[in-house]
Amino acid sequence: MKLRSSSAMLLAPFLAFHGPIAASAAPPAEVRGTWVTTTANDAIATPQNTASTMSRLKDIGINTVYVEVWKNGYTQFPSKVLERVIGVDRRPALMPMDPSDAPDRVKSAGRDLLGETLAQAHKNDLTYIAWFEYGFMAAHKSTDNHLRRMKPDWLSRDIKGNEVAPNGFVWMNPLHPEARRFLLDIVLEAVNNYDLDGIQLDDRIVWPYITMGYDEYTRKIYAQEHAGKQPPDDHTDPEWMRWRADKINEFARHFVEEVHKAKPNLIVSLSPAVYPWCYEHYLLEWPKWAAWEKDPKSPTRWDEFIPQCYRFNYPAFEQTWNEQVRFMNELGNGRVKDLVAGIRVVGEGPNATWDEVRQSIELVRKTGGGGHVLWFSKGVLDAYPTELKAFYDVAGQGPAANPRARAR
User: Which phi and psi angles does 268 have, rounded to 5°?
Assistant: First the structure.
């Protein structure tokens, strides 16, 4: 052990009496994660960047990466499911990955980003979660892609027939059986073809917005279940909200059951908007999903919940996180240890300060949460790499294990 001279002088009597200081115990297991995306950064823009990014994340102390693999209507891996549905097996050349992409950024067809990032993540002993970011989202309003052109009957619409939701995206109808099957099949294809540690969906597994659900297919199903009546014109009608939410709950059960059937030990993760805002705007009530594992009639398990507690200051984060803990205790069978905080470091607006990031992580630990995932890798790699590395390596403890990590 190397000691500064002043420290050595202070510790000399202690060492003489007690002997050498024992090595620090390993830190408690927790998720120390970050999302990795092709948007607004170059972390995985080339194979060389991918290798460097995964190595640096490991060195900083991250143990889990959530890597974007389904985006703007195309898989980020070669997909026979995608090819069967729309005729191409990945993003074609000149089709933007992100609405802001310039043509020169996407002049080549999509790489197998899943395979490439997975190999480098595992090389660095990182837990790898394939993040199907877009879920039922088919395209940005400015993107005229294959899925939007070829499957108009899959799309959700508002009462005026508009296919663009208030959030600026075109969505597949989460009630349509073919759209459901498509999303599930691309997830299962990745699960079966790659050595994934887990998969993640977020708040795009839901209705596009509370104003949506007036497409022809949804109207038909609603009428069948309501003696021929059409959905109320008022999209905030409590029964109409409840009916749509129940349809999402139904699919969420089916989804997680099929994924776990394919690979029982896979981590199935959800990163939703915070509750109850997500119910009021998207008809999502994810805390109740946590209680399903104890359902005597139909036990099924989502393994991890990462609410997006993205706030611009620590007091706002503290209030939001404590609310999520309370709802998990009240509605989710107390599964706070499976509640992981999504913490904003960078994004729209000013970056979080390091002190705000640190306090947020410490609050999650204090309240018994399962860890944290930082939005996004740019914040880890560019904003606070030195601070995070020192924070994670307190007293020389070194890296923490992901509590759900499996041996490889």
Answer: -110, 110
Owner of token pair 């200081």: 21
Q: What is the pTM of this model?
A: 0.93
Task: Give residue-wise pLDDT tens across range 190-227.
Answer: 999 999 999 999 989 999 999 999 999 999 999 999 99
Give whole-number Cα distances, 320 to 18, 314, 315, 326, 379, in Å. Answer: 46, 10, 9, 10, 21
R_g (Cα) of the chain, nearest Å: 23
202 Cβ partners below 8 Å, 6+ apart? 131, 133, 135, 270, 271, 272, 308
In 3D, which of 352, 265, 327 has the Cα closest to residue 301?
265
Report the distance separating Cα 204 and Cα 216, nearest Å: 21
DSSP one-letter code for 196 = -
Print the SS3 string covering 348-359.
Answer: CCCCCCHHHHHH
| Angstrom distance (rounded) from CA 173 to CA 257 | 21
Q: Which residues 6+ apart lie within 8 Å of 124 measured at CB?
A: 54, 55, 57, 58
Identity at 294, one-letter amino acid code:
K
Token pair for 296 = 């005597």
Note the pLDDT tens digit of each residue in 286-297: 999 999 999 988
Q: Mind listing the pLDDT tens digit for each residue in 67-79?
A: 999 999 999 999 9
Q: Which residue has the tokens 């997006």?
A: 308
Complete domains list, the chain, with CATH = 31-396 (3.20.20.80)
Predicted confidence at residue 26, as pLDDT, reads 80
Phi and psi torsions of 223, nearest 5°: -60, -40
- Beta-bridge mates of residue 64: 33, 127
